[in-house]
Amino acid sequence: MNTGKPDFRLDHLNISSENPEATAKFYGRALQMEVSPRDGGEWLCCGPQRRVMFSAGPRNQLHYASFVVADEAALTRLREGIQAAGGRCAPSVSALFRHPGAFSVNDPDGNVVNFSVAADADQTAREGLSGRLQHVVFKTRDIHRLMNHYAQIIGFVVSDRVETEEGELKACFLRGDNEHHSMAIFAGSSDCLDHHSYEAGEWALLRDWGDHLSSEYITISWGPGRHGAGNNLFFMFDDPEKNWLEISAELEIIDDRPLKVWEHSERSLNLWGKGHIRT
Fold it and tell me: What pTM, to 2 d.p., does this model score?
């Protein structure tokens, strides 16, 4: 079991798309990102503290997620902790990570997660609304197996669990630093991408993001609301391939507290109104 204290944050995603160019251009409009083609038919979108790539493949799947740690010493500790816990590390598959020590780990569902140093993060100053790429969420047919991989092998800490009255696990929220979650996992009928989220920081910025989306004729599909787990304010909208995107604000910061268990109900997902129950 990896018992090291985690300190890594999400840097970028590579999302599978049936039409990478069209999907990337939607993200450019929706999230105020610069869009550019890359080798191999991939498309890259870059905005302030947010990078997302699109590659050809089936919709609602993730090619990989990529996290960064502070420096090379932290990267070495992370890799050694993963290997000591029985994990297998391979070279990074991200074209955006150039550090020679960057590595990847496959999870039991086939998702690939890369790790590198913060120097590999995008340092370019860009114009646009605040919205740092902050977390990624999976659906899975085997939630215990996937949670145990990320908590026991990789070293994420479980902040919250969502359980039925009988104790059946329906969701878990895992943190890589002091933010409530940088990854979450929901029980579902398939193994796929559930959503990914951009942290605006302040409640008033949700208004600004909503106004921006309206100017692009993009409609909100859920929210505004407040999640139970994480206590963050949010709304969600869809991309053309029915991937869910979240704009979030004021996510809980955890210095140290016991794991919290939520009842499997709409309130764990939205304290203000309707929640989207996955199963």
Answer: 0.96
d(CA 239, CA 218): 9
List all residues 6 or more positions away from 215 whose beta carbon is below 8 Å from its beta carbon. Answer: none
Q: What pLDDT tens digit does each residue of the chain (279 aa) get?
A: 786 778 999 999 999 999 999 999 999 999 999 999 999 999 999 999 999 999 999 999 999 999 999 999 999 999 999 999 999 999 999 999 999 999 999 999 999 999 999 999 988 889 999 999 999 999 999 999 999 999 999 999 999 999 999 999 999 999 999 999 999 999 999 999 999 999 999 999 999 999 999 999 999 999 999 999 999 999 999 999 999 999 999 999 998 899 999 999 988 899 998 877 776
- Cross-strand pairs, 261: 161
Minimal CA–CA distance to 10: which of 159, 129, 146, 177? 177
Q: What are phi and psi of 180, to 5 degrees?
A: -45, -45
Q: Cis peptide leading into 224, omega within 30 of 0? A: yes
From its phi and psi, is residue 236 left (phi > 0), alpha (psi between -120 and 50) or beta?
A: beta
Nearest to 160 by CA among 50, 267, 69, 246: 267
Region at 35 (left for phi over 0; alpha for psi -120 to 50; beta for the rest): beta
